[in-house]
Specification:
Structural class: mainly alpha
Number of domains: 2
Oligomer: single chain
Strand order of the largest sheet: 1-3-2-6-9-10
Radius of gyration: 29 Å
Strand content: 5-15%
Largest sheet: 6 strands, mixed
Number of strands: 12
């Protein structure tokens, strides 16, 4: 969640121009009245709120709603621009409109994508860099919102690298709107001209009102069904742009009768409404489209309050004067570039080094502001000049931008593939080759799997080189988690059983949990086949097996579907009466909800106690329905994806060692205490990954982790024998 957007409308055109037919409409007055310093200040407020939210400034968690402010502002300005052209020329030049958009949007957007791909290729892992290249391709054709809706990503994901180009979704939404809106304006003008009656402004108002109503209804529906898709959807966002258009059409009529004091009160009310949204909303607001009414209506109020009547020269009200002060105007001028720069700087740095502190985030914010000022001065301003870049050249910027970005993507793709196949010069790690067996201070485990982990950590502590070949390949990591076939329970309405393993067997194995249970399927499949078990994997990503209510930002609070799925999974155990039931889950990402309905935040003693109680409830509930009940403790969580370290040509195995994350370990320990209190046997996988509180990024020649906390299917499969023996299911 999360989320600003760019200010892409021309800053010099803001107020409704005077009617050219009015003898009072002096051209100089009209040009002066079109400039709205307060709109630039409004842009500054919105972009600063977005940056504050993304950079995790306390108290402004809802600042990402600056996206809504910018969409309304853009709809307002673009509609004003088109109406002005209709009044002055009797029509709309679609080519001229698109040329202005090209001059305004493409130069800075292209520069930032090129730099982001380059930084990602150098600083991020190869697999992550390839994903950024893919995102850049979608951004190049203004379809980034389609891409991110498809992959189901969000700004508030806990255990994945958010794309440094994810914020380009908003440019895509606007550009898609800009393709349609001038054509609708032109169609209304042409239709009314043919009939020789009616006002195009009135017809446009009707069209906009219908569009706003339909889009808003669709947004409310889609946020209930698929919040992530709704967030990125142009049809679900069009009502906000349309609301700005409505304000542009009716603004003069609404504002003209008002006194300066009344307009000031209207603007102040709007600013207070925006402030309330920024400071009282959190990530859950993105799951309820109706909550966006507050910032949308508040923005429209500020815009309408600053509209002047024909030929008016009245002083602006004091809120407009406050928004129009020079510092805010400057930030407003830079707002587009600031929006483009701030997100990739943060994401790339945290993708390389993990979460950064407040001082580093402050430095990044200042760097983004400096880059924005330079980009505005040397990229935006020169290339926005219609004399320097006339219409034909401006329209040619579209294919030129695509060509530049295509070349950038090709180079980034090639470099990422080179890094992914060019590891160190070392051989695969072995017990004998590591030297650990010759060290008198080390007692080597008789278990060959544990001994190889010891050898791998030992080699890392001595700075041994990364093996030249690794399994799975770095570019295969993203898809290296075992699939669940037809029984993917991610959709809320999937409730069926899919037998695996020995499907003809009489004995049954059931595995319940989240993605941290799913990652073991490649091992459980082998165990089930060898032990003669029919296996059922009742796993739902992010849905813990512990009987506790969890929250998710993208659903706006408690995740009812998780609770419903867990109840259904437990009911299947009661019906199947399996021979063996295994529970496996990581600690839930978000807040937990206790019996009193109070949210319990991560990292608190209350969470640990609640989680232990929840695990005990699940285990006690399942125990009567299964012959053997087991808990598979969660694997250690790294502070960053260990595999990404391997792409650094200067890295050795020691650079890629990590210590388990304490908060994740506390959650895992809570599950173990609950199991022990009920006498439920526990399988602890830590010796298969870590030794002496250090965990290896390479074990032998295998990469064990996909990301910070999920095992690769290759490594999980290699542990089938060890896991099966610990469960008492591996025949000797």
């Amino acid at each position: 969640m999360t989320q600003g957007r760019s200010a892409t409308a021309d800053p010099a055109v803001a107020a409704d121009p005077a009617d050219p037919a009015d003898p009072r409409a002096d051209p100089v007055v009209r040009r002066r009245d079109r400039y709205r310093p307060d709109v630039q200040g409004l842009r500054a407020v919105a972009v600063l709120a977005v940056v504050a939210a993304h950079y995790r400034l306390p108290g402004l968690e809802g600042g990402y709603l600056g996206v809504d402010v910018f969409l309304v502002v853009s709809g307002f300005l673009i509609t004003q621009l088109l109406l002005s052209e209709v009044r002055e020329t009797g029509g709309v030049s679609v080519g001229g409109f698109w040329a202005r958009r090209a001059r305004r949007i493409l130069p800075a957007a292209t520069v930032v994508v090129v730099v982001t791909v380059a930084l990602s290729s150098i600083l991020l892992g190869a697999a992550e860099a390839v994903e950024v290249v893919r995102d850049a391709g979608w951004a190049a054709v203004f379809a980034a919102n389609v891409r991110f809706a498809q992959v189901g990503t969000d700004y508030f994901a806990q255990d994945q690298l958010t794309s440094p180009l994810q914020h380009y979704w908003s440019l895509a939404v606007e550009e898609q709107f800009y393709v349609v809106w001038p054509l609708l304006v032109l169609g209304c003008v042409a239709l009314l001209a043919r009939r020789r009656r009616g006002s195009p402004t009135r017809a446009l108002l009707v069209v906009l009102l219908v569009l706003v109503a339909a889009s808003f209804a669709y947004a409310v529906h889609l946020t209930r069904a698929d919040p992530v898709a709704a967030y990125f959807s142009t049809p679900a966002r069009a009502w906000e742009l349309g609301a700005g258009g409505v304000a542009a059409i009716v603004g003069r009529r609404l504002s003209a009768p008002l006194s300066v004091r009344a307009r000031g009160l209207l603007a102040l009310t709007g600013l207070v409404g925006m402030g309330m949204a920024f400071t009282t909303y959190d990530a859950s607001a993105q799951a309820r489209a109706e909550l966006a009414l507050l910032p949308v209506v508040a923005t429209a109020m500020v815009l309408v309050a600053g509209v002047r009547g024909p030929g008016a020269v009245a002083d602006p009200a004091w809120p407009q004067r406050l928004l129009g002060v020079r510092p805010l105007r400057a930030v407003g001028d830079w707002s587009y570039s600031l929006y483009l720069w701030h997100w990739p700087l943060l994401v790339v740095l945290e993708g390389r080094d993990g979460p950064v502190g407040w001082l580093a985030r402050l430095d990044l914010a200042l760097l983004a502001l400096g880059l924005a000022a330079l980009t505005h001065r040397f990229v935006e301003t020169p290339l926005r000049d219609p004399l320097r870049i006339p219409r034909f050249r401006a329209l040619a910027l579209y294919p030129a931008s695509v060509s530049v970005l295509a070349l950038t993507c090709a180079l980034g793709w090639s470099y990422a593939h080179h890094r992914a196949t060019s590891y160190g010069e070392g051989p695969a790690l072995t017990l004998q080759g590591s030297g650990v067996s010759e060290d008198p201070q080390v007692e080597v485990s008789p278990d060959p799997v544990v001994a190889l982990v010891q050898a791998s950590v030992y080699a890392g502590e001595r700075g041994r080189p990364v093996p030249r070949t690794l399994r799975p390949g770095r570019l295969d990591l993203a898809t290296s988690i075992a699939g669940v076939g037809e029984c993917s329970y991610s959709p809320a309405d999937v409730r069926r059983l899919c037998p695996r393993g020995d499907v003809t067997a009489d004995r049954t194995l059931v595995v319940i949990g989240d993605s941290h249970a799913q990652m073991w399927i490649s091992a459980f499949d082998q165990i089930a086949q060898r032990a003669g078990l029919r296996a059922y994997y009742l796993v739902k990503p992010q849905c813990t097996a512990a009987s506790v209510t969890v929250t998710r930002p993208d659903v706006g609070g408690p995740w009812a579907d998780c609770t419903a799925f867990r109840d259904w999974a437990f009911a299947q155990v009661e019906r199947l009466r399996p021979d063996v039931t295994v529970l496996a889950s990581t600690g839930p990402d978000g807040d937990l909800v206790d019996d009193a309905g109070t949210a319990v935040a991560p990292g608190t003693p209350a969470r640990t106690a609640l989680l232990q109680q929840a695990w005990a409830t699940s285990l006690a509930r399942l125990a009567p329905w299964t012959d053997e009940l087991r808990l598979l403790r969660d694997v250690p969580t790294a502070d960053r994806a260990p595999g990404a370290c391997l792409d650094d040509g200067a890295a050795d195995l020691g650079d890629c060692l990590f210590a388990p994350d304490p908060a994740a370990e506390a959650d895992a320990d809570a599950s173990v205490r609950a199991a022990r209190s009920l006498g439920v046997p526990t399988v602890d996988p830590r010796p298969w990954l870590c030794w002496r509180d250090r965990c290896a990024a390479v074990v032998g020649d295998v990469i064990p982790y996909i990301d910070r906390s999920h095992l690769t299917s290759v490594y999980a499969a290699s542990l089938a024998g060890s896991l099966g023996r610990r469960l008492g299911l591996w025949p000797t």
